[in-house]
Automatic annotation (TrEMBL):
N-terminal signal peptide: 1-21
Assigned protein family: Belongs to the leguminous lectin family.
Keywords attached to this entry: Kinase, Lectin, Membrane, Receptor, Signal, Transferase, Transmembrane, Transmembrane helix
Gene3D superfamilies membership: 2.60.120.200, Phosphorylase Kinase, domain 1
Domain of life: Eukaryota
InterPro entries the record matches: ConA-like_dom_sf, Kinase-like_dom_sf, Legume_lectin_dom, Leguminous_Lectin
Protein name per Swiss-Prot or TrEMBL: L-type lectin-domain containing receptor kinase I.3
Pfam family, one: Lectin_legB
Membrane-spanning segments: 292-315
Length: 379
């Protein structure tokens, strides 16, 4: 009995030691980054609701956030890592362009102050590829919402794997393999909706997968690249995020993040607990202004048309107004409109001309049958 108890105690102790040593090989941030062990710089900040905001609507800026403790990638350790994070790229207006992008970064240093914004995503600089400093030992998985001439192969928002340089070694249009539908579905990077990203590296293959929040991890990755990172990784490597703005800006967020050295140890992100990124602002002002101008124009047009029609009616009425004389009341309507006289005399045809009197010319005409059967002379 006592022996058993000892065994249980020893087992728990071993388990505890095992757990504490695990602290450095994995972590998870499900419900905000307020308590997170992060090194944050640039315009990046942790918002009161726990969101990690990397950039906001300020041009040509960058923001970084790194897990404070580096991971050991010494010669004897296995070169692997597995990460799952949720990000959101929120452009200034719905359907508008935003910039510039977010990258998951593995770097030998948390100091990326040498880096540039825009197409360099706050990770690289114009000099990065030529220098032999720590900056050349960089791996970045970019979600780039802008096409940069001379840097990007794809002319649209894209996902790319960058080693040393912002020129991706492989890039793809954002999409995911739907396990349910059995086909690829595209993703709009700038929808402002949360996007899940998985980066898996087992020492020989680097896989990148994307999916909307409500979708499970795709069975097939978006990109799968054979790569040996032993030359790139130094003994201590930091993991984190970088984002940049250019002339175009976006609010770029990380909502949740799980990281592990091994596949089995990767903790699941509880997506229901994640803080929510503010939605894309809708253009309410514009939407209300445009119809108002339109409505006023339509009203003006209607009023104008009514005035023209009214004027024409009034003009015609006056022009053809006939004078009613008192005797007419007594003898009933013996009047004919000019129109019916015109019709009756076949347009005052010469054949119908009877003669010329003191009041004018006299024509013979036939009034419509329903009205009068007799012949009338008209003046
Ligand atoms: C990069 O540097 C080269 C020369 O070092 C310069 O000509 C070029 O304009 C620079 N590009 C950017 C984007 O800064
Ligand atoms: C990468 O994807 C390929 C193809 O689906 C798969 O065979 C491989 O196991 C994956 N590797 C990792 C590290 O997830
Ligand atoms: C889906 O996309 C992946 C990666 O881009 C590609 O390898 C695969 O052939 C596509 N599958 C289908 C069914 O289009
Ligand atoms: C990666 O490259 C290093 C040396 O460059 C080599 O020792 C190692 O075996 C390679 N790893 C794989 C998985 O090929």
């Amino acid at each position: 009995m006592v022996c058993r108890l000892y065994l249980v105690l020893i087992f728990s102790c071993v388990h505890l030691i095992f757990l504490s040593s695990q602290q450095k090989t994995r972590f998870v941030y499900n419900d905000g980054f307020d308590q997170a062990d992060l090194y944050v710089d640039g315009i990046a900040r942790i918002l009161p609701d726990g969101l990690l905001q990397l950039t906001y609507a300020t041009k040509l800026q960058m923001g970084h956030a790194f897990f404070k403790q580096p991971f050991d990638y010494g010669p004897s350790s296995l070169l692997s890592f597995y990460t799952h994070f949720v990000c959101a790229l929120v452009p200034p207006k719905l359907g508008a362009d935003g910039g510039h992008g977010i990258a998951f970064v593995v770097s030998p240093s948390t100091d990326l102050s040498y880096a540039e914004q825009a197409q360099f995503l706050g990770v690289f600089s114009n000099e990065t590829s030529s220098s032999s400093s720590s900056s050349s030992h960089l791996l970045a998985i970019e979600l780039d919402s802008v096409y940069s001439v001379g840097v990007d192969k794809l002319e649209n928002p894209h996902v790319g794997i960058d080693v040393y340089s912002p020129k991706s070694i492989e890039s793809a249009l954002p999409s995911y393999f739907s396990n349910v539908l059995g086909k690829n579905e595209s993703i709009n990077l700038l929808s402002g909706e949360p996007i899940q990203v998985w980066v898996d590296y087992d020492g020989s293959f680097l896989n990148v997968s994307l999916a909307p929040l409500e979708v499970q991890k795709p069975n097939l990755p978006l990109m799968s690249t054979a790569i040996n990172l032993s030359e790139i990784f130094q003994e201590k490597m930091y993991v984190g995020f970088s984002a940049a703005t250019a002339k175009l800006t976006s609010n770029q967020y990380i909502l949740g993040w799980s990281f592990s050295r091994s596949k089995e140890q990767l903790q699941t992100l509880d997506l229901s607990k994640l803080p929510q990124a503010p939605p894309v602002p809708r253009e309410e002002k514009q939407k209300k202004q445009v119809p108002l101008v339109f409505i006023v124009l339509v009203i003006l047009l209607v009023v104008l048309v009514l005035m023209v029609l009214g004027g024409a009616y009034w003009y015609r009425r006056n022009k053809y107004a006939e004078v009613r004389e008192p005797w007419e009341k007594e003898y009933g309507p013996h009047r004919f409109s000019y129109k019916s006289l015109y019709k009756a005399t076949n347009g005052f045809c010469k054949d119908g001309r009877v003669g010329k009197g003191g009041f004018g010319e006299v024509y013979k005409g036939t009034a419509p049958k329903q009205a009068y059967r007799c012949e009338k002379t008209v003046t």
